[in-house]
Amino acid sequence: MAAPPPPPPPPAYGAPPQEMRVCTGCGRQIPVHYNACPYCGRSTSGQPQGESMGALKYVLYILSFLFWPLGIIIGIVFMISSESEKKQVGKMCIMLAILSVVLYVVCYFFIFAAIFGGMMGI
Ligand SMILES: [Zn+2]
């Protein structure tokens, strides 16, 4: 008679899964605490992710403001992300998209008010 399989070990608290990031040189996953990539030797010091996101997020903000439906889509996609920076960017994109909609409504309101006001001789 076979013994029942042992229960799976419980997840070890205090030992979080090792954080990984993608090497900017070779694209392989390397531990986040490494100063240099063990595969290609590229230095990982500095802001490898923050920097690339830095320029991109302003592009996303502008896109969100100009095309608000796109901003909401970008916002939702980024809010789902596990990275706190992306969540922050996603939140900002949605806020800009909402701001854009509000501005559109206000602009149209004033345009229509001006047209109808002018037609009625006010
Ligand atoms: Zn590498």
Mind explaining what this structure looks like?
There is one protein chain. The protein is 56% helix and 5% strand. The protein is mainly α. Helix 2 runs antiparallel to helix 3. The termini are far apart. The site of zinc ion has 8 residues, from loops. Zinc ion is lined by residues 23, 25-26, 28, 37, 39-40, 42.
Topology at a glance:
Elements: E1 20-22, E2 29-31, H1 48-66, H2 68-80, H3 84-119
Antiparallel strand pairs: 1-2
Bound molecules: zinc ion (ZN).
How would you summarize this macromolecular structure in one to three sentences?
With 122 residues, the protein is mainly alpha-helical. The chain is built from 3 helices and 2 strands; from the N terminus they run E-E-H-H-H. The protein has a two-stranded antiparallel ribbon.
Percentage of residues in helical conformation: 55-70%
SSE arrangement, N to C: EEHHH
Mean pLDDT: 83
Secondary structural class = mainly alpha
Shape: elongated
Radius of gyration: 25 Å
Note the beta-strand portion: under 5%
Largest sheet: 2 strands, antiparallel
Task: Tell me the distance between the termini.
Answer: 96 Å
Task: Strand order, main sheet: write it out.
Answer: 1-2
- Stretches where pLDDT is under 50 for at least 5 consecutive residues are none
Task: From the structure above, extract its key features.
122 residues, two-stranded antiparallel ribbon, 3 helices, 5% strand, binds zinc ion
